[in-house]
Write a structure and sequence with these properties.
Strand order of the largest sheet: 13-14-12-15-16
Oligomer: single chain
Largest sheet: 5 strands, mixed
Radius of gyration: 40 Å
Number of strands: 16
Helix content: 40-55%
Shape: elongated
Length: 606
Amino acid sequence: MKAGQLLFDDLFETNPRTGMITFNHKRMVLVSVEALGLLRRDLINTLGMERAKGFLMRYGWEWGKKDGESVASMYNWKNIKELMLAGPMLHTLEGVVTVEPDQIKLTEDSIHFTGFWRNSFEAQEHIEYYGLGNDEVCWILVGYASGYLTSTFGKDVIAYEEMCVGKGDPTCRFAAKTVAELEEEKKAGLSYYKAESLLSELDLAYKELNEINQNIIESDKIQQNLTYFLLEDRPLSETIQFLGDTIQRSLVIDYYNKEIESAFLNEEDKFIYHNWADKSIYNEERKNDISTFPIRANNINLGRLVVIGKERMSHRDQLVINRALSVFTIQMYHDWKIARSLWRKKENFFEEILNNFDSKDFEKFSHLFHFHPCDINRVISIKVEPSENRKEVMQLLKLAPAFSNKDIFANDEYIHMVLTKEEAENSLEVASDILVHLGSEFNTLRFYIGIGRESNNFPTLKKSYEDAKYISEFIHLTNPSESIISLYEDVATVMMFLKGTDQNDLIAFYKRTIGGLIEYDQSNQSNFLITLKTYLDNNGNLQQTADELHLSIAGLRYRLERIECLCNVNLKTGEGRFNCQLALQIYFAITINQNQYIERSDIHLM
């Protein structure tokens, strides 16, 4: 017997008197596709997609297995291949799907069977009610093919879809192999064929729903307690401790890996967190369950919640954490607004007392500050490049515990900080620590830190404030490519020019001395001005200057000759070098102070 010789009339017997249809003496019934579709939808809606898939695959398996047993016993088949091909023919005759075999390869121990399914009722049904998805949906067909081939071949065979109309493919294409030949990822499909009754599936679904319901009830109670914390204005530390005790996991709220609040169950978890956050030892993620949840409000990044445990988080814990996040967000946003309000008050008042000092006003608001004007103080100013990142840097500094006792302000293009007492006396060391801290958190940004003069009263504090701003701008102008710190004492001479009130003579002098050189650089996009500065900084040493500028001695000599010609100066004389050095200092000083020029049109060479 060949598969192509199978005919409907030979396979199925209809008895009009009894109303029975039989196939190999076994009763059959005609069922509409709409009825099968309704059953399929009800199973999905009752059991969920995954459990319904398993149930329908087992249903198809049993159907295919019985058909295989029947058709094998009804005829003497020419060979095993024809018996294999009889399955697709039978499925087509039953009106389930049009099967087009593609290739079949048989050995004594293995089978590789591929083909196409046309007009799959399952795919059409699924698309109509659930739309296109990411997975294959012809579950009954896959089960039928697996059951039929297993029954007739005598070894476990698993069919699967390589393409499916239900996920947007142009056709449904199937493949079937013995289990031993299956790729590892396809073996996961074996779990769907485990014998489970509909009752057990419903029981499992009920247990899951009941567990979800219990989790919701419990998380509601926890959220109610957290809401009380919020209404009672409890601190964030108490809220995070309560949540950690509830889910028995260590919790950390941090900002750029810097702890804001934490509740560690043990020292080991604390060690794990710092390994992971501070030292970037991400192997900790493989040995422990570390999850992060962003905390944001109104597009403002307030930080993140880090959850650390040994085992994977349960659905209950995830639900509780998601409920708690809303409380954390409200608490942290509230604290953020208060802090912003306090910072703004301090910034505005600081400007006011610098410009219009009144001792009574200061005493009235002195509680806002950590410094006293009669103590030793210094102001440092930080310029951030690119400047659009300044707010983010400011946020980090204000939230960092190391700077909690410092007065920090932001205005114009700068971040200002007042150093007091011992820190003021060791200002360069403090500024270096700040630069290291900022560099580790923002390694793509550049920072220019100016340190103003030491002060012990309000008039000199104002001068320290102005010093720091001008120095920060000055070092940015002269060293734009790298982060740098400069102390007032190092640029005291330049400061006289930065703050001069009558700059006409200074402007005339620098124009007369190096104006032609500046104009040449601007017209030709050259850097002769920097060459001159480097030469003077190295006290006229040709070798050191050439090395620093990465030039040959001959190339440097050519540049110096052009500079002498453009400036009409002799750099071999002390007077020539002094005039150029002074002109350079005035030029950079006036460039920093350009907003205070008498008329911008008077300095067109800038």
